[in-house]
Amino acid sequence: MRMLEVIVIAINFGLLYWAIIANRKGGQGSVFPLMISLGLVMVQIAVEGGRWQMVPAYLTPLVLTAYFFLGKRKEGGRSRVTVQMMKNDSRVKAALSMDGGFYGSPVSEKGLGKPFFMMYSEETYNKVMTSYDEIPKQRRGGSREEFEAPRKEYMLKSGNALAGGGLSILIPGSKHASYSDLALFSPLLGGSDTRRDHRIVNEFSVAFFDQYLKGKDDSALKALVAKYPELNFKVNK
């Protein structure tokens, strides 16, 4: 293998490792690893031409691209839309959010007044629960107030949305991408057991909507709670 190829592979996989580890420890993600990785690949192809041995390195910018846009999306859109629909549309009788964030106008402290189910990933939960003092100084990137403001907003709005009987679970070892098919693309994107995470999401989703939309009793949900005691199932007051 040529020296430039060895350098490109080593740096690309180093960038991939850095991006994943930074994200797990609460980093916000950055476009710079993607830019560096893509630039190295383009230089190698321009100088030496494409080679099949370099396919793993060529795929690195694609994985970083997916990871970057996941980071930008954060916990955002799904809960924002879910909660606003629950508040403003009488046709919506029940809803669940798969690791979404809480933005837009606040929810009453009494809750939504409708069945609401929140599924947290361990990745998101750890980010929210990580305080300013727990982040290394070199990665804080701002004042205590700037760091704590979105964290406090998330905790307040999620607490309000779940008040009055909202349901919640936290899937140990899961990541934000665990709630999508993207986690099946690479083990680096998913949690510790993506297929288990998908099975849990599917089983709880069906049981929840069967109960609150089809009028079935709560036996299915109770059975799942007993089946997966590690999920910390809660009925929030």
What features would you describe in this structure?
The model is unreliable at 24-29 and 72-77 (pLDDT under 50). 53% of the residues lie in helices and 7% in strands. The chain has 237 residues and is α/β, with parallel strands linked by helices. The chain has a 4-stranded mixed β-sheet with strand order 1-2-3-4. It has 2 domains: 3-73; 77-235, 3-Layer(aba) Sandwich (Rossmann fold). α1 packs antiparallel against α2 (32-48) and α1 (3-24) packs parallel to α3 (55-73). It has 8 helices and 4 strands; from the N terminus they run ααααββααβααβ.
Question: Using only CA atoms, what is the Rg?
Answer: 21 Å
CATH superfamily label of the largest domain: Alpha/Beta hydrolase fold, catalytic domain
Tell me the fraction of residues in β-strands, as a range: 5-15%
N-to-C span: 62 Å
Class computed from helices, strands and strand pairing: alpha/beta
Provide a concise account of the structure shown.
This protein is an alpha/beta fold. The chain is 53% helix and 7% strand.
Offer a few descriptive terms:
237 residues, alpha/beta, Rossmann fold, 2 domains, four-stranded mixed sheet, 8 helices, elongated
Secondary-structure topology with pairs:
Elements (H helix, E strand, L loop, with lengths): L2 H22 L7 H17 L6 H19 L3 H12 L6 E4 L17 E6 H8 L14 H19 L4 E5 L22 H20 L5 H9 L6 E2 L2
Parallel strand pairs: 1-2, 2-3
Antiparallel strand pairs: 3-4
